[in-house]
Amino acid sequence: MIRQPTTLDAMLAWHSAALCGPVDRHDGEPQCGWFKRKAVRGGPWLPVRVWLDQPIDRDTGELVGDETIKASCLGREVDPYRLWLGLRPISRAEYEDIVKMHMEIDAMAAAGVPVDLTTTPIHPSRSLA
User: Fold this and answer.
1) How many Å from the N-terminal Cα to the C-terminal Cα in the chain?
2) What is the pLDDT of residues 26-65, one digit of tens each?
3) Phi-psi region of 35 (alpha: psi -120 to 50; beta: other; left: phi over 0)
4) Which of 20, 50, 84, 115 could form a disulfide with 71, with the two C-beta atoms 3.0–4.6 Å apart?
């Protein structure tokens, strides 16, 4: 029996529904998509991407191993099961905006420290355009 990988539409079905309104969320069942979270109250939003790692045979297109749910936050792999209930679904565009802010605003780098962007100076050469 050929094992077919989960389709992109199926992977993102929960996320798409969550962007439209409230959906059930179950502990221990992270879903694929783009999310944001805070490490501390008053801290900056952190972008989190959750995806399904699929070991696929290039020649046949079938799965050669188990699909595994994975997540990353600012390029670092994180445990999607531990973070799941604290993630807020966002659009891919908002996810990319948060990533961009982390690259351009120095105060955003200290994810574990509260930051008030209304009082934090943003240098013109590094501001968001």
Assistant:
1) 52
2) 989 999 999 999 988 888 899 999 999 999 988 988 989 9
3) beta
4) 50
Question: Which residue type does 28 have?
Answer: G
The two tokens of residue 73 are 């936050």
Domain boundaries of the chain, sorted by first residue: 8-114
Question: Which tokens sit at 113?
Answer: 């420290």
∠ CA 70-74-80, rounded to 5°: 25
Tens-place pLDDT, residues 65-115: 999 999 999 989 999 999 999 999 999 999 999 999 988 887 777 777 676
For residue 23, give both structure tokens.
Answer: 């959906």
Q: What is the pTM of this model?
A: 0.82
Strand partners, 89: 35
